[in-house]
Amino acid sequence: MARFTPDFIDELKARLKPSEVIGRYVKLRKQGNEWAGLSPFTKEKTPSFFINDQKRFYHCFSSGKHGDIITFLTETQGLSFHEAVVRLAEEAGMQVPADDPREEAEARKRKGLAEACEAAAGFFSAMLRRADGREGADYLRGRGVTDAQVNAFRLGYAPESRTALKDYLVNKGYTEETLVEAGLLIKPDDGAAYDRFRHRVMFPILGVTEQVIAFGGRALDKEARAKYLNSPETPLFHKGNVLYNFAGARKAASDDNPLIVCEGYMDVIALWGAGFTRAVAPLGTALTENQLALLWRSADEPVMCLDGDKAGVAAAYRAVDRAMPMLKPGKSLSFVFLPDGQDPDDLIRNAGAGAFRKALAAAEPLVNVLWRRETEARPLDTPERRAALRTHLREMVKLIADKDVRNAYGDEFARRLNETFAPRRDSARESSSQRRQGTGGGRQGAGQKGGRWGGERFALTPEARATAALKRHGAPSSFAREATLVLAAIYHPGLVERHESAFLGLALENRDLADLLGEVLSAILTDPALDTAGLQRHLHTTKAADTLERVLSDDTLKRQRFLLPLAEIDEVEWGWSDALRHHLFATNAQAEVAASASQTFISGEDGWKAAVTAREELINAGETPSSVADDGDVPPAKVTSALEEMRRSVEEKRKRRR
């Protein structure tokens, strides 16, 4: 049976939140900085069982029981100590040590390395307070570091001598081999060992169990090759698994006050001095997967606080890319970008803690940072470029491993794409109506220079003729018309890929159908391989399930040939294109262009061409022309005739104006 070392147990407890482990067995509710629930040890009606995640324990007032996550499993689940540790280790992603004498030897070695690092920290701290350390002390005072901060973070100074630390620790009984393995000495192949850190301000780095495992050193010599120098990888220290000040910060963090991730030691220390004791920092590298997992064990949404320069923005983007595959329900990142050229240390010294608190209040969610990066990375002034954006966003969403989060991101990006690039038909229609009724914002004065001439207006706009034609041909109800467009996508998901832009820009007046269409597009764009059966199964689990049932059971819709589930895609595309053309006319889209064309007499002679061209593109959004019209459809010849009549009318007015 494996023997669990104290280091292993401490690491295990540090990786798991008591509220998450115990919450699977006891219903908990948040109460301040603690969690409360009914005692699992006694029968009670009023909660007397409390959990404190920061202190890593539970306490039951009704029974007097007190313990940690291991104790809880042994007392409530009937597990042995070994069984409880194995179960929790699997959950924490830790490998259970084998029952091997060599493992015990390794544990003893790590203990010796930790003791050497602890002794080195004491040496550096003493040196800072001596005459040799005056330059280091002056540097810290110049950065506004107080004695309280020096003591809290155990700051120190490494003398300039090549062997000061070596001589001290060897005299304490540590071997050169141990000191080299702990990363404190450098041993060249052809020479004597010497101190790794020299003439530097020293920052002890603690592990999750609050023991010193490594150091960072800030050079005081301006000619030093490395401004900051960290300990090398050792049996104690793996840089990608450690966050500076994590042991202290997690005690201060809570759901309302999440961990703050900054870029360096001095930022963490400055924030601590300003009252923000929950700050941590990666050790000179981009945030790693293991560091993200460590953050999420103590906070659901840590705040990335980055310098406001290009390097800070680039660091934020790297964090986004690293976090995307790991996002879970409730687990994400938010971002604060400080004024250009400033880090937290600068901001606090120049503007005080209030300025930093205000910056924290403006933190942006990860999705906003990702959206801004992708929409600003390329011009979006053509359909092809906008299509490239949609494709790239779809690929980004696929990276998210968790299905629920992946679907939520698909929904969000579909909504943003629709809001950003879809035509604003409602506002345009209202504006058009106002202009036709003479209520359009002060530009209606007859005879004004550059305004309308002589009150001349279209006697009958082409859209009015189109609308009349629709009525003569027995147009279906607005619900049936809009349901046709949605049902085509449900029966034939491949149609969305062919006409993605048209679907994303589709404006439906019926709110229920609009919600159903949103669910359809989100599902298809998130998983392009989704078939009809899979899509319908998914839709039945959404808030649009009732609308789906109504659409699927509508006998009127079923009579349309192109909506048959077994219809060929070309026939579907042909029928859907006609349905879309019908919908655009029926929703008065032609009126918008007619009004826009007449309004262009104010701003320029050739503006009508752009308006007519835009309308033609809108009508041809389906890309498949129709030569035969079923009952209820506007014959394409009438569409062409209406456009030609509008063109001739506008051209005649332009000539008269000349």
In short:
The protein is an alpha+beta fold and 658 residues long. It has 31 helices and 16 strands. The strands form 4 sheets. It has a 5-stranded antiparallel β-sheet. Strands 13-12-14-15-16 form a 5-stranded mixed β-sheet, with helices on both faces.
Overview of the molecule:
With 658 residues, the chain is an alpha+beta fold. It has five domains: 6-92, Alpha-Beta Complex (DNA Primase, Chain A); 101-237, DNA primase DNAg catalytic core, N-terminal domain (Alpha-Beta Complex); 241-372, Dna Topoisomerase Vi A Subunit, Chain: A, domain 2 (3-Layer(aba) Sandwich), CATH 3.40.1360.10; 378-421; 425-439 and 457-654, no CATH class. Helix content is 53%, strand content 9%. The protein has a five-stranded antiparallel beta sheet. Residues 425-475, 589-612 and 617-643 have low confidence and may be disordered.
Percent of residues in helical segments? Answer: 40-55%
**What is the number of strand segments?**
16
Please list the strands of the largest sheet in the order they lie side by side: 1-2-3-4-5
**Derived structural class:** alpha+beta
Mean pLDDT: 79
Structural shape: elongated
Regions with pLDDT < 50 over 5+ consecutive residues? 425-475, 589-612, 617-643
Separation of the first and last Cα atoms: 99 Å
Number of helices: 31
Gyration radius, in Å: 34 Å
Largest β sheet strand count, sense and barrel closure: 5 strands, antiparallel
Quote the beta fraction: 5-15%
How many discrete structural domains?
Answer: 5
